Amino acid sequence: MSSDILQSVVESFTDQYNLETSIALVTDGAAEAEEEERTYGGTEQLSVEGPVDAFQYYTIGMGLMFALSTAPALASRAFREKEQHVFGRIMLSGTKPLTYLSSKMVSGTLITFVQLGILFTVSTILFGIFDGKDADFWIDMVYITGLYSLVVGSIASLLTSISLYANDNSTVSLVSLLVPVLAFLGGSMTPVDQFSETLQQIGDWLPNGAAMTSYLQVFQGFSFQDVLPLMLRVVSVAFICLVSASIIFPKRRLD
Fold first, then answer.
1. What is the DSSP letter of 186?
2. Relative orientation angle of helices 197-205 and 224-248, to the nearest 10 degrees
């Protein structure tokens, strides 16, 4: 069997060599020159890490979805404080209205950051989700978590302003119902790029979708600089929400 294999290889080589030599002699080397001008292959970028498994993917996805639910929860709490005249007593104490609004933004940011921090830490300790990662990975994770927490806190302040200004909690309830939809578009429930490239592009423009993609890319070995364009979208949404919240928020005591 070994001799048959060797004979087959030699015969295949000599046949191909004789064929190409004959073509080159007949065409005076034109065919060979044309062959040399062709371009073969290409460049493909591969991640330096292994693929993300389902456990890792849904740890990040579900964490972002429930963290996004923090914003309507805080806004609903603020509306109950208004109904219970807590907001009015705070205003009577001399506190500036924007100070109250800032407290909602700061509390939303801190709650979200602590929530995601506990989730990632406990998942690593108990299930080894992020085992073997270096310090740069954890620093990038802190950056992404901090910016995402900021946008959740900003959304909480905007919903607070809307509910207090309109004296109605229906807007907050509507956003609560939209959280699963936003989670789906952002890829928390399933990779939307498997359905449509358009859905993926829409998801990357949502704060939770941009954060989801950033987490996954950092997990696969990319640096924070690589995901910075996505995180700038998150920062832009946070800025718009903060400016809108400060404009809408009532500047006087409410009845």
1. T
2. 60
How far apart CA 133 and CA 114 sit, in angstroms, is: 20
Q: Residue 161: CB partners within 8 Å, gap ≥ 6?
A: 101, 244, 245, 246, 248, 249, 250
Do 154 and 219 lie in one domain? The reply is yes
Per residue in 33-91, pLDDT (tens digit) is 455 555 555 555 555 556 778 888 899 999 999 999 999 998 888 888 888 888 778 87
Map tokens 């309830």 to a residue: 173
Domain count across the chain: 2
Q: What is the pTM of this model?
A: 0.76
Domain of residue 141, residue span = 54-248
DSSP tag of 27:
T
Q: Would you give the DSSP letter of residue 253?
A: -
User: Is residue 255 situated within a structural domain?
Assistant: no
DSSP reduced 3-state for 252: coil
CA distances from 160 to 114, 190, 208, 243 (A): 21, 30, 20, 13
The DSSP secondary structure of 154-195, one letter per residue, reads HHHHHHHHHHHHHT-SHHHHHHHHHHHHHHHHTTSSS-GGGT
Residues 30 and 71 in one domain: no
| Alpha-carbon torsion (45, 204, 158, 67), positive or negative | negative
